[in-house]
Amino acid sequence: MKDSRLFKIVYYILDKKHVTAPELAEKFEVSVRTIYRDIDVISSAGIPIYVTTGRNGGIEILDDYVLEQSFFSDKEKKDILSALQSVSVVNSSYEREMLTKLSALFQIPSDDWFEVDFSRWGNASQDNTTFELLKNAVISHKAVSILYVNSNGEKSRRKIYPIKMMFKSKEWYLKAYCVEKSDFRIFKCNRMVRLELLDEEFAPLHYPDEEETRQSGECQQHTSNAEGWPGRLTPMVLRFPKECAYRVYDEFEADSIKEQDNGDLLVSVTMREDQWLIGYLLSFGTQVTILEPVHLKEAIARHAKLIYEKNKE
User: Is-above-0.85 flag for pTM?
Assistant: First the structure.
């Protein structure tokens, strides 16, 4: 079984449990006759694959079959261990135990050659507890009750159906269905101040992607409804002195930064315009100049003046 297509067929059937020859033929862009020849080769390799006929017939692999560890290359084994090591950051005994078992099975030491920690400094316990609870809710399809603080500082109690966790731009987000809003939402995990895993189970849900919402005409609705990042996307141009280069290169993509003749750094970036953005830009103090858009420049000036008036005495 040196042909990579044969391995892919095995993995596909193990994942889907039950498939048809036409389905495999379409998936791997070959004829149905070729698929049946592949099935014969797979069977001759000792894999318990079988074909059933009739109305509900198809191709299956015995339920209790497990791929031998020799089917993985050394690099694949190391990649599997590395991926598992990266999700064991929440100190889950389940992941640590699995990591130990796979290390023994693959006969590869589980060297701690890198460390991933998604928690904030000084807040590891709370962040990891949140991560573990939400991960379990997504996997088990259980509802979660949260007390959530939005970008305007408003607190609200929500019941949500967690669908998928997402790490984006240094932050964890949760894609979920909000029962109170009767719509899909994106929640920023750091803003969940209280969480409770409920006994209620829900049927698996699919979070609509950008293409789906665009086709249905709901793209703007779902964008504005995102609890984690409300507000419109705004292109902006920012200028920083060279003394601020350490932070600019830390927080912006390299291809969005242009160095000027005098050493200044010009950053062209698109960000969501909300209260968080105002605070973020103010955190640069006098080291940022907003060149575009004008209305954002004026908003920052107004907020800076309010800060001055509040703290001048």
Answer: no
| φ, ψ dihedrals at 232, nearest 5° | -85, 155
User: Coil, helix or strand for 114?
Assistant: coil
Asked whether 271 and 300 are in contact (CB, 8 A), the reply is no
Helices 4-16 and 32-44 sit at what angle, rounded to 10 degrees?
90
Compute the residue count for the chain. Answer: 313
Would you put residue 75 in left (φ > 0), alpha (ψ -120 to 50) or beta?
alpha
Chain center to CA of 130: 15
CA 226 to CA 183: how far, in whole Å?
10
What HEC string does 39-90 produce? Answer: HHHHHHCCCCEEEECCCCCEEEECCCCCCCHHHCCHHHHHHHHHHHHHHHHH
Cis peptide bond upstream of 293, omega within 30: yes
Provide the CATH topology of domain 4-61. Arc Repressor Mutant, subunit A (1.10.10)
Pick the CATH number of 124-224 from 3.40.50.2000, 3.60.15.10, 2.30.30.520, 1.20.1560.10: 2.30.30.520
Considering the domain 233-311 in this protein, what is its CATH number?
3.30.70
Distance from C-alpha of 40 to C-alpha of 24, rounded to nearest angstrom: 14
Per-residue pLDDT of the chain (313 residues; tens, 9 = 90+): 445 788 788 888 887 889 999 999 998 899 999 999 989 888 887 888 888 888 888 999 887 776 655 566 666 666 666 665 555 555 555 455 555 655 655 556 655 555 556 555 555 566 678 888 888 899 889 999 999 987 667 889 999 999 998 887 667 889 999 999 899 999 988 888 889 999 999 998 888 875 544 443 333 333 344 555 445 788 999 999 989 888 888 888 888 899 999 999 999 998 888 777 888 899 999 999 999 999 999 999 999 999 888 887 7
Q: Which one, of 114, 141, 125, lies nearest residue 91 by Cα? A: 125
